[in-house]
Design goal:
Layout: E1 6-8, H1 9-16, H2 20-28, E2 34-39, E3 42-48, H3 49-56, H4 61-93, E4 96-98, E5 110-112, H5 115-160
Antiparallel strand pairs: 1-3, 2-3, 4-5
């Protein structure tokens, strides 16, 4: 996942642990690289995330998200391994599982589960968890892209709004 190059003042405040006003002062003193866009209410400032990370010695937001995702995946894999071990122990203890009998047949059918079958099941489960995490990352990328596009469209809408009359044009 690539680093989101520009973030809002609020996101910069949360990432750095500094107040919004401190971020604004850093912009004013030119300690942070930024972009400024005009709106009817004033200006929107977008801070370069790399310069924020350099100034306040923090990790980029994407790195924090990736680390959280890795921790979640590792926890899921560990939980799967624990469950697999527990089930394997039970399978070893109870090697035969009785199948429901058909009404016409009166003899008993038994299915035997081997350790190889269980290992294959565990591998398939791990593969499915990996696919799920990849799909989740793709989804998060899509959401991030859509959020950025919405932000751009909102700014364009604000710029296209008709300006209100000036205070001295009341009689026109």
């Amino acid at each position: 996942m690539a680093i989101k190059s520009y973030i809002t003042i609020q996101e910069a405040s949360e990432l750095s642990g500094k107040s919004v006003q401190t971020i604004r002062r850093a912009i004013k003193s030119r300690k942070l690289r930024h972009k400024r866009s005009s709106t009817p209410q004033g200006f929107n400032y977008m801070i370069n995330q790399e310069s924020l990370c350099e100034l306040y010695k923090v990790e980029p937001m994407v790195d924090q998200i990736e680390q959280a995702q890795k921790r979640e995946e590792e926890a899921a894999v560990k939980a799967t391994e624990k469950v697999a071990e527990q089930v394997a122990e039970k399978v070893v203890e109870q090697t035969a599982v009785e199948m429901p009998q058909k009404k016409e047949e009166k003899h008993e059918d038994k299915v035997y589960i081997t350790a190889e079958d269980f290992k294959e099941f565990a591998k398939n489960l791990e593969r499915m968890i990996g696919q799920h995490s990849e799909e989740r990352q793709n989804f998060l990328r899509l959401v991030n892209t859509l959020q950025e596009k919405i932000f751009v469209l909102e700014n364009q809408l604000n710029l296209l709004k008709a300006p209100k009359k000036k205070w001295f044009e009341l009689w026109k």
